[in-house]
Amino acid sequence: MKRYECIVCGWIYDEELGCPEEGIAPGTKWEDIPDDWTCPECGVGKLDFEMLEI
């Protein structure tokens, strides 16, 4: 499992934990998150910014 950081606001997505409050189950790979998903902290679209593997 990997962790990714939003380069706009610093929010971290952890594939192992998912993001249940956003409807993303634990274990969901970054590639499997819908393209229309937005960052829960800053609202930037997935396709509009790059997530950095950390």
TrEMBL record:
GO biological process: alkane catabolic process
KW Zinc (keyword) present: no
Residues reported to bind Fe cation: 6, 9, 39, 42
Cofactor: Fe(3+)
Entry note: cofactor: Binds 1 Fe(3+) ion per subunit.
Keywords: Electron transport, Iron, Metal-binding, Transport
Pathway involvement of the protein, from the record: Hydrocarbon metabolism; alkane degradation
Domain Rubredoxin-like per the UniProt entry, residue ranges: 1-52
Name the UniProt record assigns to this protein: Rubredoxin
Protein's organism: Psychrobacter aquaticus CMS 56
